[in-house]
Amino acid sequence: MPKKTIRGKKDLAVNGAPPAFAEPLHVGRPNIGDQERFKEALSSILERRWLTNNGPVVQEFERDIARFLGVKHCVAMCNGTIALEIAIRALGLTSEVIVPSWTFIATAHALHWQGITPVFADIDPLTHNLDPEAVRQKITPHTTGIIGVHLWGRPAAVDALHELADKHGLKLMFDAAHAFGCSYHSRKIGNFGACEVLSFHATKIFNSMEGGAVVTNDDELAASMRLMRNFGFSGYDNVIYPGTNGKMPEMNAAMGLVNLDALPGFVSINRRNYQVYAECLANLEGISLIDYNQSDDPNYQYVVVEVAGDCAISRDEIIAALHAENILARKYFWPGCHRMKPYVDIHPHAAKDLPETERLADKVIVLPTGTGVSENDIEEVATILRVLVD
Ligand code: T4K
Q1: Is the CB of 79 under 6 A from ligand 1?
Q2: How far is the CA of 203 from the centre of ligand 1 (A)?
Q3: I need a labelling partner for 224 at 20 to 30 A (CA). Which of 83, 250, 282, 370 fits?
């Protein structure tokens, strides 16, 4: 709960006043469903003494996720990053793969970690997603695939990327870490490309504490990913694939099942939060909230604003002022993967081909939302923003 009245700049914490919130207001506070049901599920797991290695709860979780998304296979994993790595390997990607730089670092790392070069293509400033024309310009004889990201849960340019991949004989997959439950042309995200990767990290709208999955309609791909997540074992004593340990523990699947039932409630709170932000921030000079298209079934996981170049105060000053109030807004995904050390080493001049990414990286703020954030909290955040840009 906010605890002070703000009438002007002198009431702000950056100017010596007490912070608006006694406890931090987070962007990624976990949404948690029925705690009693989770505790019961945990007791059963302990009684059964089957804790991991494709246990019954994981199998139920996989069936429920596949049904919810209308996809043939869900291969549950220990987190989204390992799920990306396994999908990349199972698809046989090598050499160069085109990705956005405007994404969480895991998208690029999952390639780099396996000796594949992520080649960064620029984004469309309106959607924040890969610009297919920029992708086309990055295709070389070494390119083997494209990873689109449905950033903020807004679908990537799925059709155009499919067309491009088909034309050039490239594999296409999607990082759908933000897009659980969202749709593209009335089909759930999860059904596009060769496969799509989900994250169920604690900070995601739908979480299994840690967790992730690859979903696909390709039987062969699903079968090879199942082997790869379990060291390549095909029965006792027989390894037929290179593999790793990507298994989801039973406890995480239990959390996932409880939260899957609660998902409609989480989305409706996020939608309400988004609408309150939209009302409170309307007509605020220099700050604009990104839109969601109703027909894409947005999950409203992220409340993203852009600070205009001519705003009275810079994005970084706003972030500093919000943090002083205990509002832990984030600059996701500043400064762009291409400006992080491992990728500066590989592509020292990447920025010149990424003008939209560069521009956006200096503008974006992600504001707190989720079931832990109330209408009052949002009104207070908006009041502070209004005073800041005044
Ligand atoms: N692809 C994309 C596009 C992604 O965004 C991600 C992950 C991945 C792939 C990889 O999926 P995973 O391997 O993670 O399954 C967070 C998350 O750790 C990460 O999952 C997420 N994207 C990314 C966007 O955000 P950080 O480093 O910003 O997290 P952190 O620790 O600063 O936490 C964020 C906020 O949430 C803080 O204010 C604290 C709060 N929080 C966090 C946790 C873990 C809580 O209140 N409770 C908690 O339990 O990366």
Answers
A1: yes
A2: 5
A3: 250
